[in-house]
């Protein structure tokens, strides 16, 4: 819905209601009323022009203040650069500790859409609107801790509260994922530590491989015993041959 910021009044210049006591001079009455309404329109235009030039003056003052601040910063920076020693590439530790931490002096605009920052023309339009109904009288019938009844009808801070909830949700998710990542890292490091300690520990009594959780392959065991058996048979034959005198 379009919002009229500055409206010139009156809108209807010549549309006037002639009173019943005027019987002969209707044309003269309408002409006088039209002239009076034109004068009122000119006064309304002059008032709006004053407000417009006042806003332009305020914006110009802000720009002038920013330009002066920027000029001072440039002069300070130029003076510091001229005093620097080009031969000394590294600063000493004492000089670094003597330096003050940087702190910005720039003012950040906050509550740009607040009612106190309304222009004069919009403040006048807002004052002409109908006031909200007195719903605060129903707060005594609501549950404790519940929002006020008027906030359900009109709530200027609704969008700010919605934005705040979204920002808090993002911050909560960031903290949550950091906690999950740290927890996973701790679990992984503890598992590595436990695996190293179990690999280097020796039991006091003999335990079967199945008890220790070791699965041995049967084919590997069979091949291992077959190789050992063949080696023993060969050594036995060589010994017998040497005893019989063939060598």
Automatic annotation (TrEMBL):
Q: Which residues form a coiled coil?
A: 60-87
Single GO biological process annotation from the record? positive regulation of Arp2/3 complex-mediated actin nucleation
> Sorted alphabetically, which InterPro entries does this protein's record hold?
SCAR/WAVE_fam
- Give any Gene Ontology cellular component: cytoskeleton
Which PANTHER family did the record assign? WASP-1, WISKOTT-ALDRICH SYNDROME PROTEIN FAMILY MEMBER
The entry assigns this protein to a family as follows:
Belongs to the SCAR/WAVE family.
Descriptive protein name: Wiskott-Aldrich syndrome protein family member
**Taxon lineage:** Eukaryota, Metazoa, Ecdysozoa, Nematoda, Chromadorea
